[in-house]
Amino acid sequence: MKKIVLFASxxxxxxxxxxxxxxxxxxxxxxxxxxxxxxxxxxxxLFTYASDDFEGRNTGEPGQKKAxxxxxxxxxxxxxxxxxxxxxxxxxVPEEWLANNSRRGKLKASENVLAFIEGSEKPEEIIVxxxxxxxxxxxxxxxxxxxxxxxxxxxxxxxxxxxxxxxADAGKGPKRSILFLxxxxxxxxxxxxxxxxxxxxxxxxNTVCNLNIDMIGRIDARHKEDPNYVYLIxxxxxxxxxxxxxxxxxxxxxxxxxxxxxxxxxxPNRFYYRSDHYNFxxxxxxxxxxxxxxxxxxxxxxxxxxxxNYELLENxxxxxxxxxxxxxxxxxxxxxxxxxxxKETTR
Length: 347
Known about the structure:
This protein is of the alpha/beta class. It has helices at 2-34, 39-49, 62-78, 95-101, 147-169, 191-198, 240-254, 277-281, 310-329; strands spanning 90-93, 110-117, 122-132, 137-139, 142-144, 176-183, 207-213, 229-233, 257-259, 287-291. Strands 1-2-6-3-7-10-8-9 form an eight-stranded mixed beta sheet, with helices on both faces. Strands 4-5 form a two-stranded antiparallel ribbon.
């Protein structure tokens, strides 16, 4: 009997050791690939993406068409595939649909940009990481470059995608699939994300969560003395588990001050309803919105890439990467325990 107990204890010790080693390896891999997200690379992207050549990326206009080509070329160069097959990275948003849904004048046809890394074990479960690709264009002869809004989120998404692709190429790819979603028409009323959620490439029922990045390159007046922060909005609205995971991941890897000021239901700014994550939240998909707050250059021609704090942009992008990595690789899918049950109506 003693031998049996001893043998069982040895097996238990080995199992615990193997489990700990697996956890340690996952941490090491996460840090390794997060380190490929750098201020230098983010800046190289943004000084192009928010340059005058892109003419403020107004929805449907020539500058916005240059922007989507830039994104497509990046994904092709990285070997990150389109979920739609071949080299078709564009989800077309028709002019007629925009006319029926826009409250801000007539718009030309536009497109969302989609890229995809398939999960190694649970490919049918999708994590969507998003940022809007558009800005407000040219007004009175001045170009509104939109470096922070949302060039910062756009280039962060590119770097996050590249980090996941490097991991996948090394056989350390995410267990769940990741969709990198650049949406158009955010400035015209969250139109690109609305179109995607009405016409999803993957069923919304299979969408685990949406991590949305909209303005993460600057410091607002409230944090001049404490710049290592980011506002988190919506993390606890639909999933207790997602909120807890987000907090734990930040403590483990980044130690950024997570500011929930704008998560308050009574906040008059109502930022929860003002970026693309909201179209996912409306469909009971758990979300986190990453945001640095507004500043004097918000929606001004002075929102230029030279004013971005690239070290902060790097840290915040790494936080999103680590959060996505954890969600993608955890054993069980996060639960939307606060989601509203939509009741069937009979006619």
